[in-house]
Amino acid sequence: MKLLCLGDSLTYGFAVQPDQSWTALVSAKSLIHIDNEGQCGDTTTGMVYRLHQFDLSRYDAFFVMGGSNDILLDGDLENICRNIRNIVTTFKAQGKPVYLGIPPLTTMESAMYGWQNARDVEKHNDQLRQYRQWLLSYGKETGCHIIDFYEALFNAKRRTGRNLYADGVHPNAEGYAVLAREVLKVMGG
């Protein structure tokens, strides 16, 4: 399968070596060939713009995950949802499977790295929780396959007690391995 992955730094694999990103791990452990079009710092508006640069007919399936940067920049949730709708609609028009990624929460550590102010962490996480609920509902409504990184990281942290973040926003190598396992579970690798 040839998969186009459109996203931000969480898809790109920021904070780890290239072979430790979830996309590289999935490719190494399956027959899924991934074109990783994750771009650090990208917003859902940027993803809508970039979407038209790809020949979608070359792919067997599509993955999209965005919104974290929008939320960290205090973007409007309605606009984020509208952008994701536009991307999914474009992908769906190809008549091929669409995978919808749900971004994980942030931690207080993210403020030390300058990703957000400490006073905004809980507000942004509340928005990420609301966004997750919308993505779950929208994914079901549109027949997208959900890949819930939010739940996967949360459950792995609760189960192991280990820190799975490099900087409070991006996973560390162990965290990206959790994300890769979640993708393989959903896609069947």
From TrEMBL:
Where does the sequence pass through the membrane?
none
Q: Which GO terms describe its molecular function?
A: phosphatidylcholine lysophospholipase activity
Q: Which interval of the chain is the signal sequence?
A: none
Which stretches make up the SGNH hydrolase-type esterase domain? 5-178
Know the name of this protein?
Putative arylesterase
A Pfam family assignment: Lipase_GDSL_2
* Organism whose genome encodes this protein: Megasphaera elsdenii DSM 20460
